[in-house]
């Protein structure tokens, strides 16, 4: 009888120790990741993934998923490079420029294509791009995706360049959400505008379309957003990268199959992040200029960065070999 009691105690203690060990192991496996994106319509896949909690579905149980919203590509890329975020959506311009500068990053998918519109202030006296000599234009940042698209078009098709290189057009920078008010007050003449802010300008009546998306340089072929992560994460935690990309693919497919619900999510998230509520008509109009896809073509990116070099945004011509990694989307 004593032997039986002792044996029972040993079993109970062993079970408790096993349970404690299991709990500790599970606790050590729980992780925290942060995904970044911008509050604009080209980044709807990020908004859908957040609202639908898709990363929580594809990552291991217990993973805490956080989100960080960025005002510009430079801040986003710095966050990726320092490990502040695991990855997310950014314009292709900042991704390529940072890669060219030596950043160890990978583009593992796209988010959308299109959505850049050249808008002119109503009373600026601009009827065509040829009228831009001596006029001012605004872009989000010097050398950003929309800036390169606009300046490439103007140089190649109209022979006009910005004052950055001694040209005829005055260049200023600012947040796209402010463009409508800047048009209204006459502070700038033309904007290279990402959606949905082009449609906001149209709806508010402060400007008109000068060049629509298909005619802008790389307007329908260049990814308007790419999904970026660090080379370190790709090399050392490929399963995590695959889980993240799987959620991004699900979000993109949700947008393709459920456009009305995706539009509602976009309206909600943009209001939550920017405190600016966009009308359904603005979103409907902007949606027509965008294709949501996670496929990415490295040759288009190479052509684009060649244009960036030609405009003087880069000191040396760059080879983007190794930037795009398709193994996670195929």
TrEMBL record:
Q: Which Pfam families match?
A: NMT1_2 (PF13379)
Question: What are the alphabetically sorted keywords of the record?
Answer: Cell inner membrane, Cell membrane, Membrane, Signal, Transport
Q: What InterPro entries would the database entry show?
A: ABC_SsuA_sub-bd, NrtA/CpmA_ABC-bd_dom
Location of the protein in the cell: Cell inner membrane; Periplasm
Query: Signal sequence span per UniProt?
Result: 1-25
Which family does the UniProt entry place this protein in?
A: Belongs to the bacterial solute-binding protein SsuA/TauA family.
| Record protein name field | NitT/TauT family transport system substrate-binding protein
- Organism for this UniProt entry: Alkalibacillus salilacus
């Amino acid at each position: 009888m004593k032997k039986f009691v002792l044996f029972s105690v040993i079993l109970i203690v062993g079970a408790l120790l096993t349970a404690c060990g299991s709990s500790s192991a599970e606790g050590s496996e729980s992780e925290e990741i942060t995904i970044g994106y911008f509050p604009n319509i080209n980044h709807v896949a990020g908004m859908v993934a957040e609202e639908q909690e898709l990363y929580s579905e594809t990552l291991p149980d217990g993973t805490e998923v956080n989100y960080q919203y960025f005002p510009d590509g430079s801040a986003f890329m710095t966050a990726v490079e320092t490990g502040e975020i695991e990855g997310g959506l950014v314009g292709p311009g900042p991704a390529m420029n940072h890669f060219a500068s030596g950043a160890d990053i990978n583009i593992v998918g796209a988010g959308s294509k299109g959505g850049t519109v050249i808008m002119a202030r109503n009373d600026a006296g601009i009827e065509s791009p040829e009228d831009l000599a001596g006029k001012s234009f605004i872009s989000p940042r010097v050398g950003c995706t929309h800036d390169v698209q606009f300046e490439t078009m103007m140089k190649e098709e109209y022979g006009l360049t910005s004052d950055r290189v001694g040209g005829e057009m005055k260049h200023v920078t600012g947040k796209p959400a402010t463009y409508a008010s800047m048009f209204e007050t006459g502070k700038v003449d033309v904007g290279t505008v990402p959606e949905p802010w082009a449609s906001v300008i149209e709806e508010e009546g402060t400007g008109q379309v000068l060049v629509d998306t298909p005619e802008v340089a790389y307007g329908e072929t260049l990814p308007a957003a790419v999904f970026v992560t660090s080379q370190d994460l790709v090399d050392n935690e490929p399963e995590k990268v695959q889980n993240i990309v799987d959620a991004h693919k699900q979000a993109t497919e949700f947008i393709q199959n459920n456009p009305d619900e995706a539009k509602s999510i976009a309206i909600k998230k943009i209001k939550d992040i920017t405190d600016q509520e966009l009308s359904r008509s603005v979103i409907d109009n902007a949606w027509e200029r965008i294709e949501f896809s996670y496929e990415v073509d490295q040759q288009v990116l190479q052509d684009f960065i060649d244009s960036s070099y030609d405009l003087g945004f880069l000191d040396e011509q760059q080879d983007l070999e190794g930037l795009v990694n398709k193994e996670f989307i195929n």
